Amino acid sequence: MTERVSVVGLGKLGLCLAACFAKTGIETIGVDVEEHVVQSVNKGISPLVEPGLQELISSLGGKQLRATLSHQEAIDNTDMTFILVATPSNQDGTFSNRYVESTLQSLSQALARNGKAHHLFVISSTVAPGSTENSFVPLIEKHSKRTLHSGFDVCYDPDFVALGDVVRGFLEPELIVIGETRQEAGERLEALHGKVCQNHPHIARMSIISAELAKVSLNAYITLKISFANVLANICEKVPGADVDAITRAIGVDKRISPYYFNGGLSFGGTCFPRDTKAFIALCKKHLQNAELIETVERVNEFQDQHLAELVLEQAAAMRGKSVGILGLSFKANTPVITESPAIKLITRLLKHDLRIVVYDPLAMGNTKALFNEQIEYVSSAKECLECASYCVITNRLDEYRLAAENYASDRPLTILDCWRLLDPAKLSHRIRYIAWGYAPQTSPGRAEAAAG
Fold first, then answer.
1. Residue 310: how many other CB atoms lie within 10 Å
2. Is 385 noted as a catalytic residue in this protein?
């Protein structure tokens, strides 16, 4: 069977997913509520910044991949619809399903108007365990006037991709989790992934509620691992001679740990990890389980932000010019997303003090300016940021920052706080005072490459 696929929600993940389907020859319709997004895609212009996405949209937009505002068009012209819309946090930390539910209501009403025998709905948004069976299936039945298995099926197919690497993540995933309401639906979805994947990922098929819990659990576990590495970095900062990178590289080789997401450094941010951590805590409390382990993760993350600000303010107090440069504004490299970014939280704290703040990021300047306006200064290159600052914080791992620091030629003294040990002190000008996050002041960081993550 040649599937025709629609993807509802052309955001940071949904548009990449739709483009990856289209790239492999699958007829794909993308649906979004924003008219400018639809028009942009149909003109072959990506409305989002994500490595590799513009190349795909340039070749596919308006052709193999079409975008529309119409849920009816998606139902009428495709066999399978992926829903990948936002599920933001409620005040109690639980996921809000309002966008998923409104999308499913509209799609189901469209299905009621269509005479086709069957449609497969695939939920890919991160949701609380139980959402599909207790909310989504009854909602579809109500508005489609059909029953599960006879007029439609539902699968849960969460993404495990990371911003800045989304396209590759969909084309070469390590893991695919399929929650299915019945075997036939899971088989169709597995076959579709087989057409898209350029590798041979592990495919785990299970009940829908198990798949929902697997998605939330994986992200919660990753934040636990990040937090342990951060605690280790904080210890190394107090123990002269200790090398956090040497330690994480060594013990990360153990297959019980693995090297990924195991670098001591700044707090985790972005749209997923902070949200999913809160959701896991809420899930534990809902089922009367102890949530202390993940609550500690939140406290460690908050401490990293506070510790960074205290370190910068302590150093700034001794500076003459009191100008602080920040290289890296997004929560991680290669994305414009500043949600829960350590750099943004640092700027917020620094603005309470009499400091000149100069910033640069190749992708996140627009989002940062929309947040801070003229309270801080924006420059056009990493080189300019270094030249304007007395003290510079490198918050992201980007070669542009490393090269700018290594080529620093000004006679002005400069202190650099390197939060991810990106730089090699031996390659820096004698005018630069180098501080590596997670190392005691008298300890020089090792130069071997840090573990991936």
1. 11
2. no
